[in-house]
Design goal:
The structure is a homodimer. Chain A has 9 helices and no strands. The first copy, chain A, is an all-alpha fold. Chain A has one domain (8-184): Orthogonal Bundle (Tetracycline Repressor, domain 2), CATH 1.10.357.10. Chain A binds a DNA duplex through helix 2.
Chain lengths: 192, 192
DNA sequence: CCAGTTGCCTAGGAAGTATAGGCAACATAG
DNA sequence: CTATGTTGCCTATACTTCCTAGGCAACTGG
């Protein structure tokens, strides 16, 4: 039986492509094995189990998303950086829905803490927010809100949640404006 | 073989409770059948298939969430209504993680359009936003952003995405303040 | 070349989804 | 009450997915 030349990397990449094509739920070891022309049991030589595959996929997609964002915000600050950040984020999610979904999967906290990519993602976000003169602890609050808004937006969009005739792109641009506004005037704790 | 007295409603309710207990992924016809002390095949007398079960679960959870929100905002306006809305939203998600996840599942658009609950949810949201003097098309944009932020927040929270030591409740309160700020000063299209 | 490693396979089992047909509990009409 | 039609349960079965164990030969390195 000649070897098919599989490696863990190749398997994960194929999983990413399959996720984008048929959705994350469609990524099974069985489907991947069929794609490679091998038996499903053969994949266990390269990934430990489905959970291992998903973790690797999460890290791959998270890394890609972070790279995209880093490239987009490089050399920019203020609203320009925010818009670039958000645009890169949404474009990645639109172009790679399965990868994006994988990037947001809950993951073992220890693995997450050990991931250079996760750290980098946080640093890029905070660097951008510091240009709005935000510092601890407002930096944390604002960072969380930013992430929530972006994630919520692309998730609802992907789920067909914006059914109104109003073009989503227009609403998106308004949302970026709104985010810029609150980042410039982040509410203090006693603003109520 | 005496009948176990199952109905579709009972099955869906059990699914909701199981979802909250073990997560939405753990809701299987097999698990439900075990809970009722019947064979899995028996459940097909009450639900057409897994997809039908999920759709019913989505509608149930969506209705509960909408009821909670409606109750919370009744008689309130402005920031008080917003805070009540958001609090009801997050509390439901925290108390019923599986139900909440089910409420956000993509669903057949035709079924969604025919759902009184979905319509009601939209109406409640827009009623609240009108108190901020928002009108079409800003109403749509703002509504989308509100939903995105809330959904993103509770989703990231549930996935353990807010790992920093900063208490999430504090960040949450700041996010509501931020939302109130942008709703009061919703950016116009030419604000750039 | 030889020995050790390992990537493939088969075999098999567990769990979940789903269909078909049978039987008796159930509901309803006369 | 009885007869009849309905249907909720079961068993049997098939398929899919996930996973483990052991065997064999391709592969690697000395």
């Amino acid at each position: 039986m000649p070897r098919a030349g599989l490696t863990a990397e190749r398997v994960v990449l194929a999983a990413a492509e399959l996720a984008d094509r048929v959705g994350l739920d469609g990524v099974t070891l069985s489907a991947l094995a069929r794609g490679f022309g091998v038996r499903d049991a053969s994949l266990y030589s390269h990934v430990r189990n489905v959970r291992d595959l998903r973790t690797r996929l999460t890290l791959l997609a998270g890394g890609e998303l972070t790279d995209r964002i880093a490239l987009a915000v490089a050399g920019r600050s203020g609203k320009e950086a925010l818009a670039a950040f958000a645009q890169a984020y949404r474009e990645y999610a639109l172009a790679h829905p399965g990868r994006y979904a994988a990037s947001q999967l809950p993951m073992d906290q220890a693995l997450l803490a050990a991931s250079p990519t996760a750290q980098r993602s946080i640093e890029i976000t905070y660097a951008m927010l510091r240009a709005y003169d935000l510092a601890d602890p407002e930096l944390i609050d604002a960072g969380r809100m930013l992430r929530a808004t972006l994630h919520g937006y692309v998730t609802l969009e992907a789920a067909g949640g914006f059914g109104h005739a109003r073009p989503v792109q227009t609403s998106w641009e308004r949302a970026i404006d709104a985010l810029d506004l609150v980042l410039r005037r982040w509410p203090a704790a006693n603003s109520r």
